[in-house]
């Protein structure tokens, strides 16, 4: 199955932070019409559960569409509490998160007002790259730079996007200055 950009990168970021994730977790709505049949990302780490809805582009910012996003997250929370008993432990924190690329301000504000954390995909990408950069620094620690055509042995264990980003970092296509400048900006004001 092909994932959207927001879903794919968010999943990779959570994995890089050692979260256990399941993408497209099927859920059964408790009431009303069935708008979506899954939650994009179900992530678990320590005493936290994140229910994440990812949208590259929300075509319609109407109240009805906002209701669908909220209903999906609420249905996911109820489903997870019912079928994943460990979540009912009082020490487990459940967070509802909406990751987006293009979504109207009114939708973002409504979701925030309803207790949903909203994150622009650029923030996820920036933090993902920073996390991979930390890993690269750990691999480099105490080692000389490999000769041309050779690589740090453990980088070979990374796959697809991780390996590509590590290559960009290692060859200074991406650097802390660029990433930090992105993280300083209020991305929600830049992307409407």
SSE layout and pairings?
Layout lengths: L4 H12 L3 E7 L11 E8 L2 E10 L5 H21 L9 E10 L2 H9 L3 E4 H20 L19 H11 L5 H9 L2 H4 L2
Parallel strand pairs: 3-4, 4-5
Antiparallel strand pairs: 1-2, 2-3
Helix pairs in contact: 1-4, 4-5, 4-6
What would you note in describing this structure?
It is a single chain. The protein is α/β, with parallel strands linked by helices and 192 residues long. It folds into 2 domains: 5-121, 3-Layer(aba) Sandwich (Trna Endonuclease, Chain: A, domain 1), CATH 3.40.1350; 124-186, no CATH class. Helices cover 45% and strands 20% of the residues. The protein is built from 7 helices and 5 strands. It has helices at residues 5-16, 63-83, 105-113, 121-140, 160-170, 176-184, 187-190; strands at residues 20-26, 38-45, 48-57, 93-102, 117-120. Strands 1-2-3-4-5 form a 5-stranded mixed β-sheet, with helices on both faces. Helix 3 links the parallel strand 4 (93-102) and strand 5 (117-120). The longest helix has 21 residues, at 63-83. The two termini are 28 Å apart.
Briefly characterize the structure:
Helices cover 45% and strands 20% of the residues.
Helix percentage range? 40-55%
Count of DSSP-assigned helices = 7
Mean pLDDT: 82
Q: CATH topology of the largest domain, anyone? A: Trna Endonuclease, Chain: A, domain 1
């Amino acid at each position: 199955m092909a994932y959207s950009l927001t879903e794919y990168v968010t999943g990779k970021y959570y994995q890089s932070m050692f979260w256990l994730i399941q993408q497209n977790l099927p859920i059964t709505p408790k009431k009303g019409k069935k708008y979506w049949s899954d939650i994009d990302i179900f992530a678990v780490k320590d005493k936290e559960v994140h229910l994440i809805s990812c949208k590259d582009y929300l075509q319609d910012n109407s109240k009805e569409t906002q209701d669908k996003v909220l209903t999906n997250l609420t249905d996911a929370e109820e489903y997870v509490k019912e079928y994943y008993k460990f979540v009912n432990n009082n020490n487990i924190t459940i967070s509802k998160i909406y990751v987006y690329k293009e979504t109207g301000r009114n939708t973002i504000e409504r979701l925030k007002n309803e207790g949903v954390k909203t994150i622009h995909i650029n923030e996820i990408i920036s933090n993902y790259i920073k996390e991979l950069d930390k890993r690269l620094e750990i691999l480099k620690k105490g080692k000389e730079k490999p000769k041309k055509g050779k690589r740090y042995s453990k980088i070979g264990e990374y796959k697809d996007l991780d390996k590509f980003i590590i290559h960009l970092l290692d060859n200074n296509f991406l650097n802390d200055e660029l990433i930090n400048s992105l993280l300083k900006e209020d991305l929600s004001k830049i992307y409407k």
